[in-house]
Specification:
alpha/beta, 9-stranded mixed beta sheet, 31% strand, Rossmann fold, 12 strands, 6 helices, single chain, globular
Length: 203
């Protein structure tokens, strides 16, 4: 069973609706016992970095996530700010991140022709093969909405990039941990394919 973590920091309902369309068995919960019973975990996100971290701390989820992801090695997918909190730190506030994939989150460079936030459809470059992107063509368009981006310490952790005035990381993988900057729940059939692949193929 897949559990979508409900921590008041993400667009949980939209992600749940997308997962439901994929005919994936799931629950939405912040209950520790439910999370502990999960086979896979998704952390959605639409709020800023510090708010997300504060909400995770309020619900005593930081230590639990470490145990479930690092100790038990459960497949994990962070979406948008749910990806960014995997980092060590962020320019968006003073909170420290989960530090599950070492790196920092920095603000997008603002340019005359490229406003911030980066919002809308953009082509994603697939850097290397992985089961989460099975049947996804290189340069497929996905839907973005963000003002900050993840810079991992180790470039080997980069799975996907997007060009927005500069090439930025929009997908990461380290062992059993995945993060994507774009919103699969808003990316139509290609986003649903990402969720299906995570549910069925990523172990």
């Amino acid at each position: 069973m897949l559990v979508i973590i409900d921590y008041d920091g993400g667009n949980t309902k939209s992600v749940a609706n997308a997962v439901k369309k994929c005919n994936i068995e799931y629950k939405v919960s912040s209950d520790h016992s439910v999370i502990e019973s999960a086979q896979k975990l998704i952390l959605p996100g639409v709020s800023n970095f510090s708010y997300c971290m504060k909400e995770l701390k309020k619900k005593n989820l930081v230590k639990l996530l470490y145990e479930e992801i690092i100790i038990k090695k459960k497949p994990f997918l962070g979406i948008c700010s749910g990806m960014q909190v995997l980092a060590s730190s962020s320019e968006e506030g003073d909170e420290q991140g989960l530090n599950l994939i070492p790196g920092k989150v920095i603000k997008l460079l603002k340019k005359k022709t490229l406003p911030v936030p980066h919002m809308g459809w953009n082509k994603v470059e697939l850097i290397k093969a992985d089961s989460i992107i099975d049947q996804i063509d290189n340069l497929t368009r996905f839907y973005f909405c963000h003002s900050f981006h993840f810079v991992p310490d180790n470039s080997e952790d980069i799975l996907m990039t997007v060009n927005y005035g500069e090439k930025i990381c929009c997908g990461i993988k380290k062992d059993n941990i995945y993060g994507i900057q774009f919103h699969p729940e808003k990316s139509q059939k290609f986003g649903l394919s990402i969720l299906k692949n995570f549910s069925k193929n990523c172990d």
